[in-house]
Specification:
With 463 residues, this protein is an alpha/beta fold. 26% of the residues lie in helices and 32% in strands. The strands form 6 sheets. A 6-stranded mixed β-sheet has the order 16-15-14-17-18-19, with helices on both faces. It has a 5-stranded antiparallel β-sheet with strand order 1-10-9-5-6. A 3-stranded antiparallel β-sheet has the order 2-4-7, with no helix packed on it. Helix 5 links the parallel strand 14 and strand 15.
Length: 463
Protein backbone atom coordinates (compact mmCIF):
# COMPACT_ATOMS: atom_id res chain seq x y z
CA UNK A 1 0.00 0.00 0.00
CA UNK A 2 1.05 3.57 -0.67
CA UNK A 3 0.45 4.58 2.95
CA UNK A 4 2.70 1.74 4.20
CA UNK A 5 5.52 2.77 1.83
CA UNK A 6 5.23 6.36 3.02
CA UNK A 7 5.28 5.38 6.70
CA UNK A 8 8.39 3.18 6.25
CA UNK A 9 10.41 5.49 4.02
CA UNK A 10 14.16 5.10 4.73
CA UNK A 11 13.54 2.59 7.53
CA UNK A 12 15.73 -0.58 7.78
CA UNK A 13 14.15 -3.72 6.34
CA UNK A 14 13.83 -5.35 9.79
CA UNK A 15 11.64 -2.50 11.13
CA UNK A 16 8.12 -1.80 9.94
CA UNK A 17 5.48 0.78 10.88
CA UNK A 18 1.84 0.06 10.14
CA UNK A 19 -1.34 2.04 10.77
CA UNK A 20 -3.29 0.20 13.43
CA UNK A 21 -6.30 2.57 13.54
CA UNK A 22 -6.98 4.35 10.26
CA UNK A 23 -10.71 5.08 10.19
CA UNK A 24 -10.44 8.59 11.79
CA UNK A 25 -8.53 9.74 8.70
CA UNK A 26 -11.66 9.11 6.64
CA UNK A 27 -13.27 12.03 8.52
CA UNK A 28 -10.79 14.56 7.12
CA UNK A 29 -12.48 14.87 3.67
CA UNK A 30 -15.87 15.20 5.37
CA UNK A 31 -14.55 17.96 7.67
CA UNK A 32 -13.05 19.81 4.69
CA UNK A 33 -16.39 19.68 2.87
CA UNK A 34 -18.24 20.88 5.99
CA UNK A 35 -15.77 23.75 6.34
CA UNK A 36 -16.43 24.78 2.73
CA UNK A 37 -20.19 24.54 3.08
CA UNK A 38 -20.56 25.96 6.58
CA UNK A 39 -17.33 27.54 7.81
CA UNK A 40 -16.88 27.10 11.53
CA UNK A 41 -13.95 26.94 14.00
CA UNK A 42 -15.31 23.57 15.14
CA UNK A 43 -14.40 21.87 11.86
CA UNK A 44 -10.90 23.36 11.94
CA UNK A 45 -10.37 22.24 15.53
CA UNK A 46 -11.44 18.71 14.67
CA UNK A 47 -9.18 18.58 11.59
CA UNK A 48 -6.18 19.99 13.42
CA UNK A 49 -6.82 17.66 16.37
CA UNK A 50 -7.02 14.56 14.18
CA UNK A 51 -3.94 15.48 12.18
CA UNK A 52 -2.12 16.38 15.41
CA UNK A 53 -2.90 13.05 17.03
CA UNK A 54 -1.78 11.06 13.99
CA UNK A 55 1.32 13.24 13.53
CA UNK A 56 2.34 12.89 17.17
CA UNK A 57 1.72 9.14 17.15
CA UNK A 58 3.75 8.64 13.98
CA UNK A 59 6.58 10.85 15.29
CA UNK A 60 6.62 8.74 18.47
CA UNK A 61 7.00 5.36 16.74
CA UNK A 62 9.33 6.80 14.09
CA UNK A 63 11.66 8.05 16.82
CA UNK A 64 11.63 4.70 18.61
CA UNK A 65 12.04 2.74 15.37
CA UNK A 66 15.73 3.61 15.28
CA UNK A 67 16.27 3.65 19.02
CA UNK A 68 15.13 0.22 20.11
CA UNK A 69 17.33 -2.88 20.05
CA UNK A 70 16.79 -6.32 21.56
CA UNK A 71 19.44 -8.99 22.12
CA UNK A 72 19.31 -12.42 23.70
CA UNK A 73 22.04 -14.51 25.34
CA UNK A 74 21.96 -18.10 26.53
CA UNK A 75 23.52 -18.59 29.94
CA UNK A 76 25.63 -21.70 30.44
CA UNK A 77 27.23 -23.98 27.89
CA UNK A 78 26.49 -27.70 27.89
CA UNK A 79 22.94 -28.99 28.19
CA UNK A 80 21.95 -32.59 28.90
CA UNK A 81 18.37 -33.87 28.67
CA UNK A 82 16.70 -32.84 31.92
CA UNK A 83 18.83 -29.72 32.41
CA UNK A 84 17.44 -26.20 32.74
CA UNK A 85 17.83 -23.71 29.90
CA UNK A 86 18.20 -20.07 30.93
CA UNK A 87 18.19 -17.10 28.56
CA UNK A 88 18.80 -13.42 29.26
CA UNK A 89 17.03 -10.78 27.15
CA UNK A 90 18.23 -7.18 26.95
CA UNK A 91 16.01 -4.39 25.59
CA UNK A 92 17.80 -1.08 25.05
CA UNK A 93 15.95 2.19 24.47
CA UNK A 94 18.35 4.95 23.38
CA UNK A 95 15.65 7.58 22.78
CA UNK A 96 14.43 10.08 25.36
CA UNK A 97 10.86 8.84 24.89
CA UNK A 98 9.77 6.04 27.22
CA UNK A 99 8.71 2.70 25.79
CA UNK A 100 5.27 2.37 27.31
CA UNK A 101 4.77 -1.22 26.22
CA UNK A 102 6.46 -3.80 24.03
CA UNK A 103 5.26 -7.33 23.25
CA UNK A 104 8.12 -9.78 22.78
CA UNK A 105 7.15 -12.74 20.60
CA UNK A 106 9.57 -15.66 20.39
CA UNK A 107 9.72 -18.04 17.41
CA UNK A 108 12.12 -20.63 18.83
CA UNK A 109 11.71 -24.33 18.15
CA UNK A 110 12.10 -25.90 21.57
CA UNK A 111 9.32 -27.98 23.11
CA UNK A 112 7.59 -26.38 26.11
CA UNK A 113 9.62 -23.15 25.84
CA UNK A 114 7.73 -19.87 25.53
CA UNK A 115 9.63 -16.77 26.73
CA UNK A 116 7.15 -14.36 25.09
CA UNK A 117 6.03 -11.53 27.37
CA UNK A 118 5.07 -7.82 27.56
CA UNK A 119 7.56 -5.36 29.02
CA UNK A 120 8.36 -1.65 29.17
CA UNK A 121 11.45 0.53 29.32
CA UNK A 122 12.14 4.10 30.37
CA UNK A 123 13.86 6.59 28.09
CA UNK A 124 17.63 6.20 27.72
CA UNK A 125 17.48 3.00 29.76
CA UNK A 126 17.92 -0.77 29.52
CA UNK A 127 15.44 -3.46 30.56
CA UNK A 128 16.48 -7.04 31.23
CA UNK A 129 14.57 -10.22 32.00
CA UNK A 130 15.25 -13.94 32.13
CA UNK A 131 13.41 -17.00 30.90
CA UNK A 132 13.84 -20.60 32.08
CA UNK A 133 12.74 -23.96 30.71
CA UNK A 134 13.51 -27.64 31.31
CA UNK A 135 14.95 -29.45 28.28
CA UNK A 136 13.08 -32.73 28.59
CA UNK A 137 14.12 -34.00 25.14
CA UNK A 138 17.52 -34.55 23.60
CA UNK A 139 18.00 -33.21 20.11
CA UNK A 140 19.04 -30.24 18.00
CA UNK A 141 16.77 -27.23 18.40
CA UNK A 142 16.68 -23.56 17.45
CA UNK A 143 16.54 -20.45 19.63
CA UNK A 144 15.15 -17.45 17.76
CA UNK A 145 14.25 -15.55 15.74
CA UNK A 146 11.99 -13.13 17.59
CA UNK A 147 9.68 -10.16 17.05
CA UNK A 148 9.22 -7.01 19.14
CA UNK A 149 5.91 -5.17 18.71
CA UNK A 150 5.27 -1.70 20.18
CA UNK A 151 3.18 1.38 19.44
CA UNK A 152 2.39 4.99 20.23
CA UNK A 153 0.45 6.17 23.32
CA UNK A 154 -2.72 6.71 21.27
CA UNK A 155 -2.74 3.21 19.76
CA UNK A 156 -2.77 4.56 16.19
CA UNK A 157 0.44 2.94 14.87
CA UNK A 158 2.32 -0.33 15.39
CA UNK A 159 6.08 -0.70 15.26
CA UNK A 160 7.32 -4.22 14.49
CA UNK A 161 11.02 -5.08 14.84
CA UNK A 162 12.12 -8.47 13.50
CA UNK A 163 15.18 -9.92 15.23
CA UNK A 164 17.04 -12.48 13.14
CA UNK A 165 19.38 -13.57 15.94
CA UNK A 166 19.34 -17.38 16.05
CA UNK A 167 21.31 -20.05 17.86
CA UNK A 168 21.44 -23.78 17.39
CA UNK A 169 20.83 -25.53 20.69
CA UNK A 170 22.27 -29.01 21.14
CA UNK A 171 20.77 -31.01 24.00
CA UNK A 172 22.91 -34.08 24.69
CA UNK A 173 21.40 -37.40 25.78
CA UNK A 174 21.52 -38.21 29.45
CA UNK A 175 24.56 -40.11 30.68
CA UNK A 176 24.10 -42.56 33.56
CA UNK A 177 26.14 -45.10 35.49
CA UNK A 178 25.97 -48.49 33.79
CA UNK A 179 25.54 -51.82 35.56
CA UNK A 180 28.34 -54.35 34.97
CA UNK A 181 28.26 -55.38 31.31
CA UNK A 182 29.95 -58.55 30.11
CA UNK A 183 32.36 -57.91 27.26
CA UNK A 184 33.99 -60.67 25.21
CA UNK A 185 37.00 -62.21 26.88
CA UNK A 186 40.41 -62.69 25.35
CA UNK A 187 40.94 -59.14 24.07
CA UNK A 188 43.48 -56.68 25.32
CA UNK A 189 42.43 -53.35 26.77
CA UNK A 190 42.58 -50.22 24.69
CA UNK A 191 45.57 -48.83 26.61
CA UNK A 192 47.78 -51.73 25.46
CA UNK A 193 49.56 -50.93 22.26
CA UNK A 194 49.48 -53.39 19.44
CA UNK A 195 52.82 -55.16 19.56
CA UNK A 196 54.41 -56.99 16.68
CA UNK A 197 57.14 -59.53 17.51
CA UNK A 198 60.60 -58.94 16.08
CA UNK A 199 60.24 -62.04 13.93
CA UNK A 200 56.85 -60.97 12.60
CA UNK A 201 53.47 -62.47 13.47
CA UNK A 202 53.80 -65.64 15.53
CA UNK A 203 52.12 -68.75 14.15
CA UNK A 204 49.59 -70.28 16.47
CA UNK A 205 49.05 -74.04 16.76
CA UNK A 206 45.57 -73.59 15.25
CA UNK A 207 44.46 -73.87 11.65
CA UNK A 208 41.13 -72.96 10.09
CA UNK A 209 39.43 -72.84 6.73
CA UNK A 210 40.61 -70.20 4.27
CA UNK A 211 38.49 -67.05 4.15
CA UNK A 212 38.48 -64.34 1.49
CA UNK A 213 41.13 -61.78 2.40
CA UNK A 214 43.56 -64.22 4.04
CA UNK A 215 47.13 -63.96 2.81
CA UNK A 216 48.28 -66.87 0.64
CA UNK A 217 51.56 -67.04 2.51
CA UNK A 218 49.68 -68.23 5.62
CA UNK A 219 48.31 -71.34 3.91
CA UNK A 220 49.33 -74.54 5.72
CA UNK A 221 50.13 -76.72 2.67
CA UNK A 222 50.60 -80.09 4.39
CA UNK A 223 47.20 -79.94 6.14
CA UNK A 224 45.62 -78.51 2.97
CA UNK A 225 46.90 -81.51 1.00
CA UNK A 226 45.76 -83.93 3.70
CA UNK A 227 42.20 -82.55 4.03
CA UNK A 228 41.61 -81.48 0.48
CA UNK A 229 40.55 -77.97 1.64
CA UNK A 230 42.58 -74.79 1.82
CA UNK A 231 43.61 -74.32 5.45
CA UNK A 232 45.40 -71.30 6.90
CA UNK A 233 47.35 -70.84 10.12
CA UNK A 234 45.98 -68.49 12.77
CA UNK A 235 48.37 -65.73 13.81
CA UNK A 236 49.05 -64.61 17.34
CA UNK A 237 48.26 -60.92 17.11
CA UNK A 238 47.20 -58.82 20.08
CA UNK A 239 43.76 -57.31 19.58
CA UNK A 240 43.61 -53.54 19.43
CA UNK A 241 40.88 -53.15 22.02
CA UNK A 242 38.81 -51.00 19.65
CA UNK A 243 35.10 -51.22 20.43
CA UNK A 244 32.08 -50.40 18.25
CA UNK A 245 28.72 -49.47 19.75
CA UNK A 246 26.06 -50.56 17.27
CA UNK A 247 22.49 -49.27 17.70
CA UNK A 248 19.39 -51.02 16.42
CA UNK A 249 17.11 -48.15 15.35
CA UNK A 250 14.60 -50.11 13.30
CA UNK A 251 11.30 -48.37 14.07
CA UNK A 252 9.25 -51.54 13.65
CA UNK A 253 10.65 -53.04 16.87
CA UNK A 254 10.82 -49.98 19.15
CA UNK A 255 7.95 -49.50 21.57
CA UNK A 256 6.71 -46.69 23.77
CA UNK A 257 7.12 -42.94 23.55
CA UNK A 258 8.85 -40.27 25.54
CA UNK A 259 11.50 -40.81 28.17
CA UNK A 260 10.47 -44.43 28.92
CA UNK A 261 10.50 -45.64 25.33
CA UNK A 262 12.93 -48.29 24.17
CA UNK A 263 14.45 -45.75 21.75
CA UNK A 264 15.35 -43.25 24.47
CA UNK A 265 16.67 -45.98 26.73
CA UNK A 266 18.76 -47.38 23.88
CA UNK A 267 20.32 -43.94 23.31
CA UNK A 268 20.95 -43.47 27.04
CA UNK A 269 22.68 -46.87 27.24
CA UNK A 270 24.84 -46.05 24.20
CA UNK A 271 25.86 -42.67 25.63
CA UNK A 272 26.52 -44.13 29.08
CA UNK A 273 28.56 -47.04 27.75
CA UNK A 274 30.68 -44.71 25.62
CA UNK A 275 31.28 -42.41 28.61
CA UNK A 276 32.24 -45.29 30.87
CA UNK A 277 34.66 -46.89 28.42
CA UNK A 278 36.30 -43.64 27.30
CA UNK A 279 36.70 -42.40 30.88
CA UNK A 280 37.89 -45.63 32.47
CA UNK A 281 41.47 -46.56 33.20
CA UNK A 282 41.43 -49.00 30.27
CA UNK A 283 41.14 -46.05 27.84
CA UNK A 284 39.48 -48.04 25.11
CA UNK A 285 38.96 -46.66 21.63
CA UNK A 286 35.19 -46.43 21.08
CA UNK A 287 33.25 -45.91 17.86
CA UNK A 288 29.57 -45.58 16.93
CA UNK A 289 27.60 -47.24 14.14
CA UNK A 290 23.90 -46.56 13.53
CA UNK A 291 21.43 -45.76 10.76
CA UNK A 292 18.34 -43.67 11.47
CA UNK A 293 16.65 -40.40 10.76
CA UNK A 294 18.61 -37.30 11.68
CA UNK A 295 16.11 -34.43 11.43
CA UNK A 296 17.13 -30.78 11.44
CA UNK A 297 16.15 -28.50 14.29
CA UNK A 298 13.12 -27.11 12.42
CA UNK A 299 11.88 -30.28 10.69
CA UNK A 300 8.99 -31.26 12.90
CA UNK A 301 6.57 -32.98 10.54
CA UNK A 302 8.28 -33.78 7.26
CA UNK A 303 10.06 -37.14 7.42
CA UNK A 304 13.72 -37.28 6.46
CA UNK A 305 15.72 -40.03 4.85
CA UNK A 306 17.76 -42.44 6.90
CA UNK A 307 21.34 -41.37 7.43
CA UNK A 308 24.31 -43.46 8.47
CA UNK A 309 26.22 -42.40 11.57
CA UNK A 310 29.73 -43.85 11.48
CA UNK A 311 32.33 -42.63 13.98
CA UNK A 312 35.52 -44.72 13.80
CA UNK A 313 36.93 -45.77 17.19
CA UNK A 314 39.06 -43.15 18.93
CA UNK A 315 40.13 -42.39 22.47
CA UNK A 316 39.67 -39.45 24.79
CA UNK A 317 36.97 -37.07 25.94
CA UNK A 318 36.80 -35.44 22.53
CA UNK A 319 35.47 -38.71 21.11
CA UNK A 320 32.88 -38.86 23.88
CA UNK A 321 31.43 -35.48 22.94
CA UNK A 322 31.44 -36.45 19.27
CA UNK A 323 29.42 -39.56 20.13
CA UNK A 324 27.01 -37.61 22.33
CA UNK A 325 26.53 -35.00 19.59
CA UNK A 326 25.78 -37.75 17.07
CA UNK A 327 23.28 -39.41 19.42
CA UNK A 328 21.45 -36.17 20.30
CA UNK A 329 19.26 -35.81 17.16
CA UNK A 330 19.09 -39.43 16.06
CA UNK A 331 15.69 -41.08 15.60
CA UNK A 332 14.40 -44.44 14.40
CA UNK A 333 14.79 -45.54 10.79
CA UNK A 334 13.78 -48.36 8.49
CA UNK A 335 16.99 -50.42 8.27
CA UNK A 336 17.08 -53.72 10.26
CA UNK A 337 20.19 -54.15 12.38
CA UNK A 338 21.10 -57.39 10.57
CA UNK A 339 21.39 -55.42 7.32
CA UNK A 340 23.32 -52.70 9.13
CA UNK A 341 25.93 -55.22 10.29
CA UNK A 342 26.06 -56.89 6.89
CA UNK A 343 26.68 -53.64 5.04
CA UNK A 344 29.46 -52.49 7.35
CA UNK A 345 31.70 -55.52 7.58
CA UNK A 346 34.54 -53.46 6.13
CA UNK A 347 34.48 -51.00 9.06
CA UNK A 348 34.67 -53.74 11.69
CA UNK A 349 38.28 -54.84 11.59
CA UNK A 350 39.87 -57.95 12.98
CA UNK A 351 40.46 -57.73 16.73
CA UNK A 352 37.63 -55.25 17.26
CA UNK A 353 34.67 -55.74 19.60
CA UNK A 354 31.02 -55.02 18.81
CA UNK A 355 28.47 -54.15 21.49
CA UNK A 356 25.01 -54.40 19.96
CA UNK A 357 22.19 -52.51 21.73
CA UNK A 358 18.82 -53.75 20.50
CA UNK A 359 15.21 -54.16 21.66
CA UNK A 360 14.80 -57.06 19.22
CA UNK A 361 14.43 -60.18 21.33
CA UNK A 362 11.70 -61.95 19.38
CA UNK A 363 11.63 -64.31 16.42
CA UNK A 364 13.78 -62.08 14.18
CA UNK A 365 16.74 -62.14 16.57
CA UNK A 366 18.54 -65.05 14.81
CA UNK A 367 19.10 -62.79 11.79
CA UNK A 368 21.44 -60.47 13.63
CA UNK A 369 22.91 -63.38 15.58
CA UNK A 370 23.98 -64.90 12.26
CA UNK A 371 25.73 -61.62 11.38
CA UNK A 372 27.54 -61.62 14.74
CA UNK A 373 28.73 -65.17 14.08
CA UNK A 374 29.95 -64.16 10.64
CA UNK A 375 31.89 -61.29 12.22
CA UNK A 376 33.44 -63.72 14.70
CA UNK A 377 34.83 -65.73 11.80
CA UNK A 378 36.51 -62.49 10.71
CA UNK A 379 38.02 -61.97 14.17
CA UNK A 380 35.38 -59.59 15.55
CA UNK A 381 33.95 -60.54 18.95
CA UNK A 382 30.58 -59.27 20.14
CA UNK A 383 28.38 -58.60 23.13
CA UNK A 384 24.65 -57.78 23.32
CA UNK A 385 22.61 -55.32 25.38
CA UNK A 386 18.94 -56.29 24.98
CA UNK A 387 16.32 -53.68 25.92
CA UNK A 388 12.80 -54.82 26.83
CA UNK A 389 9.76 -52.49 26.91
CA UNK A 390 8.86 -50.55 30.04
CA UNK A 391 6.65 -52.25 32.61
CA UNK A 392 3.57 -50.10 31.95
CA UNK A 393 3.73 -50.96 28.24
CA UNK A 394 3.99 -54.67 28.96
CA UNK A 395 1.23 -54.65 31.58
CA UNK A 396 -1.07 -52.71 29.29
CA UNK A 397 -0.69 -55.21 26.46
CA UNK A 398 -2.70 -58.29 25.75
CA UNK A 399 -2.94 -61.02 28.39
CA UNK A 400 0.18 -63.06 28.73
CA UNK A 401 2.52 -60.38 27.29
CA UNK A 402 4.86 -60.26 30.35
CA UNK A 403 5.34 -64.01 30.33
CA UNK A 404 5.86 -63.91 26.56
CA UNK A 405 8.65 -61.37 26.90
CA UNK A 406 10.27 -63.44 29.66
CA UNK A 407 10.11 -66.50 27.44
CA UNK A 408 11.70 -64.56 24.58
CA UNK A 409 14.48 -63.37 26.88
CA UNK A 410 15.16 -66.90 28.11
CA UNK A 411 15.21 -68.21 24.56
CA UNK A 412 17.57 -65.47 23.38
CA UNK A 413 19.87 -65.91 26.40
CA UNK A 414 20.05 -69.66 25.77
CA UNK A 415 20.77 -69.16 22.09
CA UNK A 416 23.52 -66.59 22.71
CA UNK A 417 25.04 -68.70 25.50
CA UNK A 418 25.46 -71.58 23.07
CA UNK A 419 27.39 -69.25 20.78
CA UNK A 420 29.42 -67.85 23.70
CA UNK A 421 28.10 -64.30 23.12
CA UNK A 422 27.64 -62.33 26.38
CA UNK A 423 24.17 -60.79 26.78
CA UNK A 424 22.71 -58.41 29.36
CA UNK A 425 18.98 -57.61 29.58
CA UNK A 426 17.66 -54.23 30.71
CA UNK A 427 14.11 -52.90 30.88
CA UNK A 428 13.33 -49.47 29.47
CA UNK A 429 12.53 -47.01 32.22
CA UNK A 430 14.75 -48.70 34.82
CA UNK A 431 16.22 -45.85 36.93
CA UNK A 432 19.93 -45.26 36.40
CA UNK A 433 22.01 -42.94 38.55
CA UNK A 434 23.11 -39.87 36.57
CA UNK A 435 26.81 -39.68 35.72
CA UNK A 436 26.86 -36.01 34.63
CA UNK A 437 25.41 -33.96 37.49
CA UNK A 438 25.59 -30.40 38.75
CA UNK A 439 23.87 -28.33 41.42
CA UNK A 440 21.40 -25.59 40.52
CA UNK A 441 19.18 -23.15 42.37
CA UNK A 442 15.54 -22.57 41.45
CA UNK A 443 12.74 -20.42 42.82
CA UNK A 444 9.72 -22.14 44.40
CA UNK A 445 6.36 -20.43 44.98
CA UNK A 446 4.14 -21.51 47.88
CA UNK A 447 0.73 -20.12 48.81
CA UNK A 448 -0.15 -19.32 52.42
CA UNK A 449 -3.48 -20.01 54.17
CA UNK A 450 -4.27 -16.27 54.05
CA UNK A 451 -3.97 -16.21 50.25
CA UNK A 452 -0.46 -14.77 50.03
CA UNK A 453 2.50 -16.12 48.12
CA UNK A 454 5.90 -16.96 49.61
CA UNK A 455 8.96 -17.35 47.36
CA UNK A 456 12.17 -19.10 48.32
CA UNK A 457 15.09 -20.70 46.55
CA UNK A 458 16.05 -24.37 46.78
CA UNK A 459 19.30 -26.02 45.71
CA UNK A 460 19.16 -29.41 44.03
CA UNK A 461 21.39 -31.82 42.15
CA UNK A 462 20.34 -32.59 38.60
CA UNK A 463 21.76 -34.65 35.80
Amino acid sequence: MLLTRILNHNLPSDRRITAHVIWPLYLIPWLVIMQLIDPSPLWMVLMVGLLGFFGAGYAWVRTQAGALSLSRRRLGTMLVAGDSLREEFTLENSSSLPLLWAAFEDHSYLPEYNPSQVTSCAGDAVARWHSDAICHRRGVFRLGPHTLVSGDPFGLFRLTIHGEQQETLLVYPRVAHMPPIGLPRGHASGRDRRRRPLNGDLRAPVVRLYQPGDSLRHIHWPITAHRGQIMVTELEEEPSGDLWIVLDLNRSIHRGSGERSTLEYTVILAASLAAELLSSSERRSVGLLAVGQNPSEIATAAPTQDQATILPPQRGQGQLWRILAALAPIQTGALPVADLLHRNHSFLGKGHTVVLITPQIGADAPQWIAELLYLRRSGVESSVLAVSPASEIVDGSENGAPSLIEAQQDSLADLLARQEIPVHFMQAGTPLRAALTYRRRRTVLRTTPTGGVVTYEVEEEVG
